[in-house]
Amino acid sequence: KQEVTQIPAALSVPEGENLVLNCSFTDSAIYNLQWFRQDPGKGLTSLLLIQSSQREQTSGRLNASLDKSSGRSTLYIAASQPGDSATYLCAPYTGGGNKLTFGTGTQLKVEL
Amino acid sequence: EAQVTQNPRYLITVTGKKLTVTCSQNMNHEYMSWYRQDPGLGLRQIYYSMNVEVTDKGDVPEGYKVSRKEKRNFPLILESPSPNQTSLYFCASSFRTDGELFFGEGSRLTVL
Hints:
The complex is a heterodimer.
Chain A (H helix, E strand, L loop, with lengths): L3 E4 L2 E5 L4 E7 L6 E7 L5 E8 L4 E4 L2 E6 L4 E6 L8 E8 L12 E6 L1
Parallel strand pairs in A: 2-10
Antiparallel strand pairs in A: 1-3, 3-8, 4-5, 4-9, 6-7, 7-8, 9-10
Chain B lengths: L3 E4 L2 E4 L5 E7 L5 E8 L3 E10 L2 E4 L7 E2 L9 E3 L8 E8 L7 E2 L3 E5 L1
């Protein structure tokens, strides 16, 4: 059974800092991995989907990397802003209709 | 606007009173899924559907039913709700099972 760990569970940084969120997973036989953002009381929004054949995927100030063999992914946020405050979840996909496993997330607070 | 719509967004009910949470997507997605989110447990899949008339159990299906009579709709039915079904529920959809997942805004259910 896939297990997903996200470290740290919570993070508080001053505005403007570059930061890295970590995601590790136990089953490396994944097809892809998604990073999501969840604002309080809201649904999840997909930020990046990185295929197993890719090493990196970028969208604006966000960069996700994937090291499939070691079971790790990182989400890099450049020049953080208060609007980036949210919970970030990663979810590796191992195939089939029920093989998307979510981590419990990293709660990020970016302070002025 | 492409979206996944859930109703109701908030509901307080009593044990044993049947209820249905509706989910509708306007993106012509094949795949739809229901999750529940609980503190400390993260997101767990309840049921999913690969296409019309095709549904299957996720990780926590007990106490829930679903149907997929039309491509756009995937209602979640609680025949006899119990307090342990108090949770935040999310519907999600995607073009394929390995595709970008789109979430609804969530339905917060309290069972007294």
